[in-house]
Amino acid sequence: MPGLxxxxxxxxxxxxxxxxxxxxxxxxxxxxxxxxxxxxxxxAAPTAERADSRALVVHVVGAVRRPGLYRLPDGSRIxxxxxxxxxxxxxxxxxxxxxxxxxxxxxxVVVPRRASAGTGQASAAGxxxxxxxxxxxxxxxxxxxxxxxxxxxxxxxxxxxxxxQEHGAFATVDELDAIxxxxxxxxxxxxxxxxx
Length: 196
Description:
CATH superfamily of the largest domain: Photosystem II 12 kDa extrinsic protein
Number of strands: 5
Largest sheet: 3 strands, mixed
Radius of gyration: 35 Å
Low-confidence stretches: 32-51, 118-132
Shape: rod-shaped
Oligomer: single chain
Helix content: 40-55%
Mean pLDDT: 75
């Protein structure tokens, strides 16, 4: 009989140790089970903040479905901005846009509209109609308005918009001389048709 009480004490001690081990293991598993869910969230927050700080804000206008301001990741191209704005409309003239060009923060992406056949004939035949409407104001004119000027096509009109975006408002008509494609002869031709 003396062996039975020792065995009983050993069983109680073993049960107490086993219970203690189970409690410790349960705490550890319970704590470790929550840790993976918390740590990725903490790690993901700075990455998201860093991504936002490198985001570009661009203004997409013209022949797109949803013109407006858009945030795009650094390294995006003009095509990404056009797609974010819902894509080009059927009237867009994408041949005048370099879709592969990289974007820069604060850039305005202009997707020009194709000139309709009626518009081209009317402006060619009725040059006086443009003169009676008054001069085209360089600081507020759209791509389409600049395109109607004598000797100015869509490419040069886009260069005028780019110059205005980069250098600010035109102070004088003579500043057009700084735009590639507009020389002294073209400037004289435009002098009466435009105003700053």
